[in-house]
Design a protein that fits this description.
Elements lengths: L8 H21 L5 H10 L2 H15 L3 H23 L9 H17 L3 H15 L5 H5 L1
Helix pairs in contact: 1-2, 1-3, 3-5, 4-5, 5-6
Amino acid sequence: MRSLKCLSANQIKAVAVTAMLADHLAWWLLTTGSAGSQLVHFIGRLTAPLMCWFIAHGYTHTSDVRRYIQRLIIFAVISHFPYVIYFGFRWYANTSVIFTLLLGLIAIHFCSKYRNKTLQLLFILFCCILAYNSDWSYIAVL
């Protein structure tokens, strides 16, 4: 029996970035609601689950969770202002997807530290509320 060749992590990242780039270009270049834009946006929707998977996968393989969280905080701050400027949001009203991914990472870390299911649920709910006005919203936290 022939074994299946799996994609490497870098190849999966390339798929996610390509899908995201295609999605962003579709918003810019294609007519909203057209068949072509719907197809490209459908492909672009691969990005969120792949990025969320990489956050969870990164958590299991990192040697220093604190540094992983710090890096995401830095990139969330760096990406915040271009995001709100581009979309015309007030600086405090919305934020980018990196903040949402950061909250997902924090939720994973919290749930691995504390085994009380009620406490875990409350903390996840808290992270979802914080992510509500960010890109990908609470779905990426969950």
